[in-house]
Amino acid sequence: MDTAVATRTDNLRATLWRPLAGFSRAYLAALVLTFLLGAWGLACWGYQIFRGIGVAGIRRPTMWGFYLVNFVFWIGISHAGTLISAILRLTDAGWRKPVTRIAEAITVFALMIGAMFPIIHLGRPLVFFWLIPYPNSRLLWPNFRSPLLWDLTAIVTYLSGSIIYLYLPLIPDLAELAQHSTGWRERFYRLLSFGWTGSDRQWHALERAMHRMAGMILAVAVSVHTVVAWDFAMAVAPLWHSTIFGPYFVAGAIFSGIAALLLVMSIIRRLLHLETYVLPVHFDNLGKLLFLMSLLWFYFTVAENLTTWYGNSPSEMNVFGSRVRGPFAPYFWIMILCNFVLPFLLLSSRRMRTIRNVTVAAVTVLIGMWLERYLIILPTLSYPRLAAVTGFYKPTWVEISITASTFAAMAMFYLIFCKLFPAIAVWEYKNDSHR
Amino acid sequence: MILTADFVDAQSVAAAIQTLRARGYGAGEIDIFSTAPVEEAEALLERPSRMSLVAVISAVVFCLSAIAFVYYTQHDYRIVTGGMPIFSWWSTGVIFYEFTMFGSISATFIMFLIESGLLKRRGSIPAPRLEEGRIYLRVVCDAGDSVSSVECLYEAGAAKVDEMEEQA
Amino acid sequence: MAIDLDRCTGCEACVAACHAENNLPLSDPAEAEKGRAFHWLRVDRYYEGEFPDIRMKYMPVLCQQCEDAPCEPVCPTYATYHNAEGLNVQVYNRCIGTRYCGNNCPYSVRFFNWFEPEWPQPLELQHNPDVSIRPGGVMEKCTFCIQRIQRVKRDAKADGRAITDGEVQPACVQSCPAEAMTFGDLNDPESKVSRLAASGRATRLLEDLGTKPKVFYLQRAK
After folding, report:
1. Are C94 and A384 within 8 A, CB to CB?
2. Where in the sequence is the domain holding C118, given as residue range(s)?
3. Residue C55: DSSP 8-state
């Protein structure tokens, strides 16, 4: 039994630790490419700070544009980790094992990227720290009644919670890596593993902490995207002032989060050769969840649009008409296609839920959800209550560059993460080895 | 005297723990080391935890501090906005909620660091180096009792038992 | 403020006066086409009826200085708030440019400085020294010419007298050739603006939103 366990663990380590060693040409190329694209985005932002936010396409009346769309989108993606990790941990679903760390990493990086956007979209970004309550010479505190302050507290809480939630189950793996590494890696892992020795006290404390964190991070995640939704719902603008926005955004966030997770899982499985760990059953289960969220999203969308249309209030119908028949109609119907029709076709039966189909569905959902954020923000702003101020938004190269660079930045963070840490929690697979 | 025994499966560890408990050793003197959590051992060794209590207390403390802070800052320079009251529970309730959760999250993490012993590094008894597939049991026993304890451990199924003097 | 729509001819003298008085930045045609022109006071044109019975209605729209302004609670830095006199003031120094207030204003009367403001030479010599130049990245809007209000208050205090009705005249009110605009103290029931506001012809814009605007539009009742 001893040798069987040892071999199994060797296989475990061989597969899960292989990506950590060495740099293949493709990896370096990808890292350099994503870094350059990310740096280009930063350069564009620097240009924007220097010249003024007018280099972006935002204007009156559409004072919020791509940056807010991206903000909501990335915060939405960050709900991947929460749903999978937290809910599956709470329900003790065994199939979550290969998926949790990937999801938690997505959460942390997506949050970091999403949290940059409120600063990027500011007119005077260099004084963004005025939002932080500290005694100052202006004798002023920030306005806690503003939904933007609620955003700040929610995102800071969620970010710290997510980092802790990612870090905690990483500790045993880090200790094991430290034991089997040399040089700077050993020092790095040992430092991060905090002196973990694997004693039962530590395991006990870890499992207890993880269980509690799962519940708490879930509660925080629901509140975070509700608060982001309330950035819009608290405004009196037509079609924004809707009570359903809180739940709508949370459902949409979980929806796009699962899609992002599926995409990343698919890529990681292929690139890191994790085919024996990330199995078709995982894609099947997550595909079922994606399908469920697609139905839920569609239900919310129908409820929202039906009540608007039936209510027939003039300022709201103006915006509604622009979404369904007017200038925004192509995006609206593509969104319905991407978020509901294609997932329905690709995910509704077990036979259809192959890894490829599920990944394709995930990609269409990501596109659809980005469009959904766009369609929530722009039509309302383009058609204000006083029609004389109607105006349309056209993004400039600055906004498009920064948007593209965030995707590159996400890829880069992930590349670095997978090089330093095993993408799957090794210790969770060892539980069977002692039986 | 510190005895470190290594076992290959969880049942024998459990048997060993039961034997040691029968001989009068408390959970404070017995430690199990492994590369993955061992359920049978955890069931036998109670590790009282104050994590929940501290988390709840911390949540309450953070919540009250947030309320006090917001109340103080809203009244410090009374600025009227949009006909809203100067301080209202509804318009700042989210902030209280987030601070409460932040309090309980940080408390949980800090209690984890404390209860797992990761924070105290000085003067701790050295832990065995972990090998795959092996579970280590470490017990701090009296010098006189060590010989019979070692016998019991071998009886329970230990593959090897090391003895070490305690560092003062 | 009361604006008589039956008298307004749509000449936009008020718009020009506001530009001159408040150091409004000039936009070049490219920016204006992108919708970034500054008109703290704008004249909206409405057509009523079908050709050939068209009637034009000109409606000068400026910041309504709402009592329950939706723009105020959403500003995270208190850059816009309600002062004791009942004005919705904009503090340029505090603004960090989130533009939430601009999105939340139902009248779309808020303007944002997308760039550092520039005036082609020699127009920068024409600036009103009583009004600050806004930097790039801050929000601005009609202030009811608060500099004029302050000046009248100071003069009245120096003379030891109360402010008479009609003494404070924002630039738009002062320049209207049709005398369509009236400005005064709504708290004083005897002032001209209060009497006009109480008349049967007074309406307010988007009143059902509950913003309690302070600009009364006088038009014949339908």
Report:
1. no
2. 2-218
3. E
Digit-coded pLDDT (tens) for A27-78: 999 999 999 999 999 999 999 999 999 999 999 899 999 999 999 999 999 9
| Separation in Å, CA of A147 to nearest CA in chain C | 6
Q: Which residues contact C125 (CB under 8 A, 6 or more apart)?
A: none
Q: Find the residue in A nearest to C102 (Cα).
A: A63
Say which CATH topology domain B2-48+134-164 has. Answer: Alpha-Beta Plaits (3.30.70)
Whether A432 is in a domain gets the answer no
Task: Reduce the DSSP state of residue A236 to 3 states and report it.
Answer: coil
For the whole model, what pTM was predicted?
A: 0.93
Q: Number of folded domains in chain C?
A: 1
Sheet of B30-33: strands edge to edge? Answer: B30-33, B135-140, B2-7, B160-164
- Torsion angle in degrees (nearest 10) through CA of A74, A80, A86, A91: 150
Strands B2-7 and B135-140: antiparallel
Q: Chain C residues with CB inside 8 Å of B82's CB?
A: 66, 68-73, 82
C 145-204 residues inside an 8 A Cβ radius of A? none
In a domain, A165, yes or no: yes
- C65 close to C177: Cβ distance less than 8 angstroms: no
In the predicted structure, residue A1 carries a pLDDT above the cut 50 = no
pLDDT recorded at residue A435? 36
Q: Is residue A397, in this structure, part of any structural domain at all?
A: yes
Q: What does the pLDDT look like over A266-320, one tens digit per residue?
A: 999 998 888 888 899 999 999 999 999 999 999 999 999 999 999 999 999 999 9
Put simply, the answer to whether C100 touches A148 (Cβ < 8 Å) is yes
Domain membership flag for residue A293:
yes
Which residue ranges make up each domain of chain B? 2-48+134-164, 51-115
Chain A residues with CB under 8 Å of C108 CB are 60-61, 384-386, 389
Which of A 198-237 lie inside 8 A of B, CB atoms?
A: 198-209, 212-213, 216-217, 219-220, 223, 227, 230
Domain count, chain A: 1
CATH no. for residue A23?
1.20.1630.10
CATH number at residue C54: 3.30.70.20
Domain of A210 in residue numbering reads as: 16-133+144-427
- Residue A80's identity, in one-letter code, is A
